[in-house]
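Ticket #4471: structure export looks truncated?
Reporter: QA, pipeline team
Priority: medium

Steps to reproduce: submit the single chain below to the structure queue and open the exported record.
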Amino acid sequence: MKFFVDSADVDAIRELNDLGMVDGVTTNPSLILKSGRNIEEVTREICEMVAGPVSAEVVANDAEGMITEGRHLAKIADNITVKVPLTWDGLKACKVLSGEGHMVNVTLCFSAAQAILAAKAGATFISPFIGRLDDINLDGMELIAQIREIYDNYDWNTEILAASIRSVNHITDAARIGADVITAPPAVIKSMVNHVLTDKGLDQFNKDWAKTGQKIV
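Actual output as written to the record:
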């Protein structure tokens, strides 16, 4: 499973990238706002740092506008993935942009039916939003499982990019189901290392080592 970082914070992305934990990056208008930087400037910097796909999202609502913006964003770097919403106009834009050879991430997916349309339109990635479904008392993981089953039935090449990740459990459950990619905030990815028994064991090792009076170096 590939790890994408859901952030436009260059320093946070760099820390994870230096550890080999970054296969790609996803951004959106909210993350660009949070960064406080120009979209082209920060996206270009991320693309230079990360070898994998970097999603940059259009903001137009009509297909023509999305296509124009998508073509412009794609010029930033060769690893740009144009991100479009799962609307009818978004699907039209996906069809055109993917047909021109651009990677396309279709975002804001909340149903298996939507995921089918995105695959048919040539999406490189489909982004089902797990956390937002959980927020309204629906099962986000069930959606990932449904899309996995459907895509496998027809050998579609669109990759399932589990998004709106809120917890470590979301990541491990997505991995068990077979999502191709997860995208998560840096803090959630870093929290995967935490376990109370690891902390407890390390504390005991340190105490016992101190009692030996030894040094390794």
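Status: closed, not a bug. The export was complete when the record was re-opened. Leaving a note from the reviewer for reference: The chain has eleven helices and eight strands.
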